[in-house]
Design goal:
Elements lengths: L5 H5 L10 H7 L11 H5 L4 H10 L1 H12 L2 E3 L3 E6 L4 E6 L2 E2 L1 H12 L4 E6 L7 E4 H17 L7 E5 L4 H13 L2 E4 L6 H11 L3 E5 L2 E3 L2 E3 L1 H9 L7 E5 L12 E3 H7 L9 E2 L3 E7 L7 E6 L1 H15 L6 E4 L6 H13 L3 E5 L10 H9 L3 E4 L1 H7 L5 H4 L8 E5 L5 H11 L6 E4 L35 E4 L5 E2 L4 E7 L9 E2 L3 H8 L7 E9 L5 E6 L3 E4 L2 E4 H8 L7 E9 L3 E9 L9 H14 L8 E5 L12 H8 L16 H13 L1
Parallel strand pairs: 5-18, 7-8, 7-9, 8-15, 9-12, 12-13, 17-18, 17-19, 19-20, 20-21, 31-32
Antiparallel strand pairs: 1-4, 2-3, 4-14, 5-6, 10-11, 15-16, 16-25, 22-23, 22-24, 24-26, 26-27, 28-29, 30-31
Helix pairs in contact: 4-5, 6-7, 6-8, 6-13, 7-8, 7-11, 9-10, 12-13, 21-22
Bound molecules: 5'-O-[(S)-butoxy(hydroxy)phosphoryl]adenosine.
């Protein structure tokens, strides 16, 4: 019978005998019902145009049927979505209970236990390790039991500071199994950056390795964790796995992970989790100094990553999927771990660098592992295309079917080199646009109508359910084609972020207030005359160095810590391999003497220690003053024009407090050149 909620009691008709729950729901649209099982298997055969139309006109039917048929539920959901952008409310698959690790592991361990889940492409070529679905499930359960025996419970936050490895994947999935919330921190971040994230998330434990190995070099991870944890009172345990033979001195909080796991059972019952319980936090940069802990939840994220993984890359059952991203970034979460594993794929874990031991590394790996989809970044491609094509051509790339790019706008040279040299002109190349906040790919050339074109260096088409909108300078919606504006998305989709950890108001302010009721991406875009989207880059004070997002304010905060530095301004300037690099304008105190070399060296160290090496400005210019508005805001736009030598077109300078400062900076810059 029907549950006796107030709603049911108030409406007499619900008690009408003879109507089943399904019929009752149809009569009352306030209680939408998920589509019956089997619907997706019919729908997904529709031509792409019809499927896309359905995804935006009837999202409940589209996503509801996909969720019913593609995921294994512990309790069915009763409502597909309950969302309201203006209040930042985003709920998908309401009432459902699910466990992500079951969908990524148990389902496949039942159907094909000996299929390889992970190929760990270790730093030294030819030493790869294969892990089957059965083995990964067992390892995950042992790790989950180890966490449980150390009182890690549902809802607790666990930091993972590890390089790409099966144990890092098992750590993520073990958290998912018991309902703990993982927060991966890229293993290149400094101890201070790690500490800031642990403190913000109030993590109870850290999982790490003794050392990392990358490009033939050792990275001392455990000592970085020790330095970080000194200022983190919330940490109760540090789980240490051994990536190398090198022993580590074990302190009071340390737990030898591999040893513990061998003592625990290889079976662990999965925790039934609410669709909207948090799955993970991932910190990313915004336009203020404080990084934001982006919150992703269970069912919607899993459905969205698995569907984009399948459709955008043309993934087919049994393919070997090669995404070379680090698991510390969102690309690693969505397209190394969750999307591919949910689809039962064999996913490659790439531990090395594109040039180790030589610039043929990727293509030698493609040949050896028979990779079908290869997903990389423009920055790596720009680095590789500088070498002779023989580094590519000497390896057999006939296994490749789809090529992908992500992280920043891909330039034509890199696109064509990837497409024609690597892909021999026969593999579709998809430029995929998305963000940590979007959870998965939102704009990409695939899926497409049969025979539809892929235009070079363009993300092109919205994925199912994505409705891009371009906004003009006055906040008006730009209709028609051949227009450029701020890229927004008008309707919720299942993979999108749900909040900023501990600060829901900041989430609302950053994403839904700028253009009221729309999700604002922070990027600008152009809609071509054919209606395709081209991303033009960030519109805020965020820069993109080698595909890594950095807030200029974060770098400024680090520089400003120096006692001789009252004020700085950082901008991003173009770089032919890294895409962008930081350029710092520094004001020094008057009494520091004429030679700033030592101070600048100190400043480089400060940024490396507080953030990470790639955040260190490539250029410094010592100036007397910075251009400011009358209300005291630094006008970085003008600094950009100084460096790009376009000061004859300064734009609107009416708000500039003292226009002479521009001339002063131009002169200093010209002298330095
Ligand atoms: C920002 C998001 C998405 C995973 C990696 C980065 C830029 C990303 C593209 C692309 C042009 C792109 C945007 C976006 N970006 N992909 N294909 N074309 N720009 O994730 O660190 O959250 O950065 O990266 O500016 O806003 P992220």
């Amino acid at each position: 019978m029907f549950p006796k909620t107030n709603l049911y009691r108030k409406r007499k008709l619900y008690r009408t005998p003879g109507l089943c729950e399904q019929q009752l729901r149809c009569r009352f649209s306030s209680l939408p019902s998920p589509p019956p099982p089997g619907t997706w298997s019919q729908l997904h055969r529709l031509p792409h145009r019809d499927l896309y139309r359905l995804s935006v006109t009837d999202p409940d039917r589209f996503w509801g049927s996909a969720a019913v048929d593609r995921l294994r539920w512990m309790r069915p959901f009763h409502q597909v979505r309950d969302c309201d952008f203006s209040s930042g409310k985003i709920n998908w698959f309401v009432g459902g209970k699910i466990n992500v690790s079951v969908n990524c592991l148990d389902v496949h361990a039942e159907n094909h236990p000996d299929r390889v889940a992970l190929i760990w492409e270790r730093d030294e070529p030819g030493t790869e390790v294969k892990v089957t679905y059965r083995e990964l499930l067992e390892t995950t359960c042992r790790l989950a039991n180890t966490l449980k025996s150390h009182e890690i419970k549902k809802g607790d936050r666990v930091a993972i500071y590890m390089p790409v490895s099966p144990i890092a994947v098992a750590a993520m999935l073990a958290c998912a199994r018991i309902g703990a919330v993982h927060t991966m921190v890229f293993a290149g971040f400094s101890s201070e950056a790690l500490a800031a994230k642990i403190q913000d998330a109030q993590c109870k434990a850290v999982i790490t390795c003794n050392q990392g190995v990358r490009g033939g070099r050792l990275i001392h991870l455990k000592s970085t964790v020790d330095a970080a944890v000194r200022s983190c009172t919330s940490i109760q345990h540090i789980f240490v796995s051994q990536r190398t033979e090198q022993p580590v001195v074990m302190g009071e909080l340390d737990v030898p992970l591999d040893e513990m796991m061998s003592q625990h059972a290889s079976v662990c019952p999965p925790e039934p989790l609410d669709s909207e319980d948090s799955l993970f936090l991932l910190y990313t940069s915004g336009s203020t100094g404080k990084p934001k802990g982006i919150v992703h939840t269970q069912a919607g994220y899993l459905l969205y990553t698995s569907m984009t993984h399948q459709y955008v890359f043309d993934y087919r059952d049994g393919d070997v999927f090669g995404c070379v991203a680090d698991v510390g970034w969102i690309t690693g979460h969505s397209y190394v771990v969750y999307g591919p594993l949910c689809n039962g794929a064999t996913t490659v874990l790439f531990e090395s660098t594109p040039v180790y031991p030589d610039p043929g590394r990727y293509w030698e790996m493609v040949e050896r592992l028979r990779i079908n989809q290869f997903y990389s970044t423009p920055t790596a491609l720009r680095l590789l295309l500088k070498y002779d094509d023989c580094w590519v051509k000497k390896y057999d790339r006939s296994s490749l079917r789809t090529l992908g790019s992500v992280g920043e706008p891909i330039n034509h040279e890199a696109w064509h080199w990837f497409h024609s040299v690597v892909g021999e002109g026969r593999c579709p190349l998809v430029d995929t646009w998305w963000q940590t906040e979007t959870g998965g790919i939102c704009i990409a050339p695939h899926p497409l109508e049969e025979g539809a074109p892929i235009i070079p260096a363009m993300a092109m088409r919205p994925f199912f359910g994505i409705q891009p909108v371009l906004m003009g300078e006055k906040g008006e919606t730009l209709t028609g084609d051949s227009v450029s504006g701020a890229l927004c998305i008008s309707q919720p989709w299942p993979g999108m972020a749900r909040s900023i950890y501990g600060d829901h108001q900041r989430f609302i302010d950053a994403y839904f207030k700028v253009y009221h009721g729309y999700y604002f991406t922070g990027d600008g875009a152009h809609r071509s005359e054919d209606g395709y989207y081209q991303i033009t880059g960030r519109m805020d004070d965020v820069i993109n160095v080698s595909g890594h997002r950095l807030g200029t304010a974060e770098i400024e905060d680090a520089l400003d810590e120096h006692p001789a530095v009252p004020e700085t301004a950082v901008i991003g300037i173009p770089h032919d391999i890294k895409g962008e690099v930081p350029f710092a304008f520094v004001v020094l105190k008057e009494d520091v003497g004429d030679d700033p070399t030592a101070i600048l060296q100190h400043l480089r160290g400060l940024v490396a220690n507080k953030i990470t090496k790639y955040a260190v400005p490539e250029h410094f210019l010592v100036v007397k003053r910075l251009p400011k508005t009358r209300s005291g805001k630094i006008m970085r736009r003008i600094l950009r024009k100084v460096v790009l030598e376009t000061t004859n077109d300064l734009g609107d300078v009416s708000t500039l407090d003292d226009p002479s400062v521009v001339k002063e900076i131009v002169e200093t810059y010209d002298l330095k050149k």
